[in-house]
Amino acid sequence: MIAGTGVSALLQIALPNAARPAVVAVGILYFAVVLGISVWAARRTNTARDFFVAGKGIGLIALTVASVSVSVSGFAFIGGPGFIYAVGLGAMYIVLPAAVTNVMGAWVLAKRMRLLGEARALITIPDAIGARYRSRGAQGLSAVAILVGIVGYMATNALAMGVVINSIFGVGLGWGIWIGMGVTLAYSASGGILAGIYNDVFQGSLMAVASVLVFLFVLNFGGGLGEISRTILAHDPTFLGPWGRLTPLAALSFFFVFSMGSLGQPQAVHKYYMLRDPLQLKWYPLLKTLGLVLVLLLYFSVGVGVKAFVLSGRLAPLASPDQATPALLLNVTPILLAALVFSGVAAATMSAANSFINIGAAIVTHDLPIAFGRRVKNELRWGRTVTVLIAIAAAITAQQSGTMVAFLGIFGWGLFASTLVPALAVGLNWQGATRAGAMASIATGLIITLALETAAYLKVFSFPAGVTASAVAMVASFLVFFIVSWITRRTASTEIDPDVRLVMEL
Amino acid sequence: MWAPWLLALGIPAALGAIMILGATRGDRGVGPLKIPFGFVILMLVIGFGAALTLPATEGPLSRLWLGLPARAAIVIYGIGLLPIFVLPIAYALTFDTQTLSAEDVERVRELARVNQAEKDMLATPPQSVGANEARKRRDKRMAE
Q: Over the range B1-18, which residues count as b (16 or more CB within 10 Å of their CB) and which as e?
């Protein structure tokens, strides 16, 4: 859900040095568990299907926790609370859609993606688009769009890992990047998505435990939510207004992008293929939503709590809003809890990086060759090779230019949303959608997102009242999708294979 | 002035529309799901509308609702938490009848088996009658 905004926000800050014996010890323990899971998973990965979609599938609980883990990046722990500290409750509009998005994804995508996997043994999101429109071109174009988004995500995640690991171990940013990417690579290349999933389960559990403990600590330390609110209302009532310091338009614009855009996030949508039994989807949205609520408790409680503690003088004023979580952890909470949260942040960034490495490798070795009418002979071997190359490229890019990397990380979420939501989410549910409509919509989303985000980054142009470029790009992509599909509607019925039609009608 | 209202009404409409699109099953429509869908769409409209229209009276003496002033409580609890107790539970309760049954899964698997058999036949030498029939079926489909 918030993996996109997260890493870039995490990059804006330099975390304080937290290298204390307890933090280092918990950090080492964390890495040891990750490596142990990776060795176990590597022994069970024998085919490309094992590598990209975990072979015969994953159970409900494991998949749910893993999905929560990849949906939340370090932003939920560092950048998000800082954002609340800066703008008040308006920052909650990024996470409020979680109440709706998981079940919306289940109705719109989960069943059809999972059944397409059953009917065609598909392994990627572009696979699904290619099957839906019977088009290698649409598959290739969506693969390119995802790959562009992944370039940004990977570089920013590599840098974010460096920031966090440097904070935990005090090894320097450069070494932090290579250690983080090295460990992620070790399990991505050896155990593929299977190692990724079970590491996500561990990492997601760690994040949930850390989040709940911090939430309880903040409430206890602040004398309850009511007391925290009273302190804030006495000094800064706007903070607890329904939009905080954002304009209503900006807050609602966030809600739109993070609700509708959730249907196009490949790291989450890709997981639907992996559920062992399609009938287990029954409880998936409820469990995932509850899991997300637990992980996001820290987001809300630290943002609001630290504001109250600073206003009441119990905490020194922050140098920057993003210091909200580190300041609370290093000055107020027990050091073991701080250690747990720092490892949780490392877990969040590594989990997201692993997921994107795997998706990127699948695109390079599977989707792009198919788009050009070719097949890679040994997808498993090439998958592992490309995984290594993507990780190394991301680590090198992360060390080059902080400004460029931050820019790359900004548009990931919006790019996935504007290129994939109409063609995939609407296309799999509406037989009137056409190949031309899908391809025009993907191209529109790609071009408009890149153009508007570049213009905003260079300060050439931005929308008034805080409206996000992603929201405008997504609306444009939808319009193009419907208009072109309507113009080419005569071809609609001929572009759906019988098995795909059955999946769409169920 | 009017722009936030477009989003306040448009977002619930868009989310409701795409959920209905995903949950609709042929002639049956969304069946009993119309009640939870309607409830959540209404909650979003009321929540956003209340946040836009209620006066900003937050202060140290404001009455708190579960620890938050009224407008914040409407947003956090009404928009952010209440749908959790409605939609995922409605999804689970109607899953077998409205979303996916064992028979549905078996139909897809059966079609996959037939398609696989066709592919296998296509891979056999051309003198095979079955392969020729499979080719004809494929060619007809491609021509369509």
A: eeebeebbeebbebbbeb
